[in-house]
Design goal:
about 170 residues; alpha/beta; 4-stranded parallel β-sheet; globular
Length: about 170
């Protein structure tokens, strides 16, 4: 049975007060992206993230998301980045190029920076599909990306704790 993140949306994540998150949102397809950005912000607020630790950055379109994500990751200030945007298929192959480069670039930033960089970017065939994925709460891809960012921070924290414990044990402490 296929499990969706929304199935587990009620599990409370233990928020570290020090976590700082950045939302990177595109201006293209503005109303849809604003719903995604708002969904991400809502999720973080519901989970107890200090809103003064959340910043929003804007880029023109999805093609620019990876560069901004890389520049922000290079600062080593934020603990996770949440990228939101919408690429809607048109009559030309432009959709394929933008969607592919956006997703590849965001994944590369995450791996290079060893940082959760979440893909809350819609790639839909039409505007109706985009709006359906920008709905309320767990049906909102921005909300889901924010939730995934927090889950990744929680799990990465567990790994750091394990690494510290292993190091102490190897020193005989």
């Amino acid at each position: 049975m296929k499990r969706h993140l929304a199935d587990d949306h009620q599990r409370r994540i233990i928020i570290q007060k020090k976590w700082r998150l950045a939302i990177i949102a595109t201006r293209f397809n503005g109303a849809i992206v604003e719903a995604l950005r708002s969904g991400a912000q809502q999720c973080l607020m519901e989970q107890g993230v200090d809103q003064s630790h959340v910043a929003t950055y804007r880029v023109p379109g999805c093609f620019e998301l990876p560069l901004m994500a890389q520049c922000i990751a290079d600062l080593r200030y934020y603990d996770a980045l949440i990228c939101v945007g919408a690429v809607i298929r048109g009559e030309t192959p432009h959709f394929e190029y933008v969607a592919a480069e956006c997703s590849r670039g965001i994944a590369e930033v995450a791996r290079a920076a060893r940082l959760p960089v979440l893909f809350g970017v819609l790639t839909t065939n039409n505007v109706a599909q985009a709006w359906a994925r920008a709905a309320e709460r767990e049906h909102n891809s921005g909300w889901n990306a924010a939730r995934a960012a927090l889950e990744m921070l929680e799990e990465l924290g567990r790994l750091k704790d394990l690494a510290a414990k292993t190091a102490r044990e190897s020193r005989g402490e």
